[in-house]
Specification:
Elements lengths: L4 E5 L3 H12 L3 E6 L7 H4 L3 E2 L1 H4 L5 H24 L10 E5 L2 H16 L5 E4 H7 L9 E5 L3 E2 L2 H14 L3 E4 L2 E7 L2 E7 L2 E4 L2 E4 L19 E11 L8 E3 L4 E4 L4 E5 L13 H14 L8 E11 L6 E4 L5 E5 L9 H12 L25
Parallel strand pairs: 1-2, 1-12, 2-8, 4-14, 12-19
Antiparallel strand pairs: 3-7, 4-6, 5-6, 9-10, 10-11, 13-16, 13-17, 14-15, 15-16, 18-19
Helix pairs in contact: 1-7, 1-9, 4-7, 4-9
This protein binds flavin-adenine dinucleotide.
């Protein structure tokens, strides 16, 4: 019997997207969120949707990222029309720019591997890349261009998905889940501050905090927080159009001229802070990519935690506890992977064949007792 009553732990982009899919299939979904829906990692992201830069080699992870990118335009249409919230989706492509000879050699080798795997990539020379982005550093030697990639505003997306899921019937409740209730090897609900909420299935989507929920059933180190800091500078008129990576980080231009400069990858536990060193790093990245950013005012800064798995790939599907499903460990690509995660986890919960093979992303790959990787 497919479940009729599902509890989702956490209302980040994963929990809200899975709730949307399940609610639209007629399932009674309750999402428990201990703070504000979407307020953690999902609001801190740059909103880059880039399999080309983030999933370096052809393989199951690259395929998962591309399957999610392929779903994005329809996902955005759906949540925008159901919520009335515009999410700023722009399909202008992603550039990875070489600012020195060593990075240029590295990019050339990667372009060959991607092309051999029949994955879409265009190699641009110096003149071509400057035609696309005149604000780029004069040091730019050339770039890889991933033409079909996109970016969006993740805060708006989180809000849109939350509103769309609520309108589809998902119930969002404020509450901190303490443990997954398990009976006879099966998840039967969750325990939170005001008691037990019974369910036919539970989806753990608590991001970096997933291992703090008792009864999570994952091996030690399966998910850990990796802090990322971000600074936003304001350019008027807009200096850049598309997402641009260098070897050290990236910039994400918004259409109004703001440019996000990111990010750091820091192993500092749950210490949420914007630091002098972090800010220096992300601003250096921005100025290295587009030197004119040095004159732009800094208008916002923040930090939050990527839910990092040991191999940087998400943890998806059912584990050893029946009825307990995972939508966590999305590390650097949780915004990109939200649409495919929602479709795949909803299918798994409903006992249907997921649209992508979840085998490579099963918690079993992490093995009991394997510690975190760098
Ligand atoms: C600086 C930075 C830049 C990034 N840039 C990008 C990018 O450009 N593109 C991209 O694809 N990804 C990016 N990411 C990664 C992306 O943000 C994450 O992978 C994604 O947001 C994870 O979503 P989530 O729903 O799993 O986690 P979260 O958004 O953290 O949501 C988890 C939720 O669970 C709640 N919760 C936790 N424990 C409990 C509990 N016990 N009970 C109830 N609720 C609980 C939390 O309050 C939180 O709201 C970036 C991340 C950072 C930090």
């Amino acid at each position: 019997m497919p479940p009729v009553n599902v509890v989702v732990v956490g209302a980040g982009i994963q929990g809200s997207s899975v709730a949307l899919r399940l609610a639209r299939r007629g399932v009674a979904v309750t999402v428990l969120e201990r703070a504000v829906p979407g307020a953690e990692a999902s609001s801190a992201a740059g909103g880059i949707l880039s399999p080309g830069v983030e999933a370096l080699e052809p393989g199951p992870f690259h395929a998962l990222c591309r399957a999610s990118l392929a779903r994005y335009a329809a996902f955005v249409r759906e949540v925008e029309s159901e919520s009335g919230v515009h999410v700023g989706y722009r399909r202008l492509g992603t550039l990875e720019v070489a600012l020195d000879d060593e990075h240029a050699r590295l990019l050339a080798a990667r372009a060959e591997r991607l092309a051999a795997g029949r994955l879409p990539v265009e190699v641009l020379d110096e003149a071509a890349v400057r035609r696309l982005e005149p604000g780029l550093s004069p040091a730019a030697r050339g770039a890889l261009f991933f033409e079909d990639e996109a970016s969006l505003d993740p805060r708006a997306l989180g809000r849109a998905v939350y509103v769309a899921a609520s309108r589809a019937g998902a119930r969002f409740v404020r509450g901190e889940v303490r443990r997954i209730a398990i009976d006879g090897g099966r998840a039967v609900g969750v325990d939170h501050a005001s008691g037990r909420l019974e369910a036919d299935a539970v989806v753990l989507a608590a991001g970096s905090w997933s291992l703090l929920v008792e009864g999570h059933g994952l091996p030690p180190g399966a998910v850990r927080p990796v802090r990322g800091q971000m600074a936003v500078v304001d350019t008027r008129p807009p200096l850049l159009s598309r997402v641009i990576f260098s070897a050290n980080g990236y910039v994400v231009p918004r259409p109004d001229g703001r440019v996000l400069c990111g990010s750091t990858m820091e192993e500092v536990g749950f210490e949420k802070a914007v630091t002098a060193g972090g800010l220096r790093h992300v601003l250096d990245v921005g100025i290295e990519i587009a030197p004119a950013l040095a004159a732009a005012p800094v208008v916002e800064t923040w930090s939050n935690f990527r839910p990092a798995s040991p191999d940087g790939e998400p943890i998806l599907g059912e584990g050893t506890v029946r009825g307990l499903f995972y939508a966590t460990g999305h590390t650097r690509n949780g915004i990109l992977l939200a649409p495919v995660t929602a479709d795949a986890i909803a299918a798994a919960v409903l006992g249907e064949a997921p649209p992508v093979d979840l085998g490579p992303f099963s918690p079993a790959r992490l093995g009991a007792g394997r510690g975190p990787a760098a």
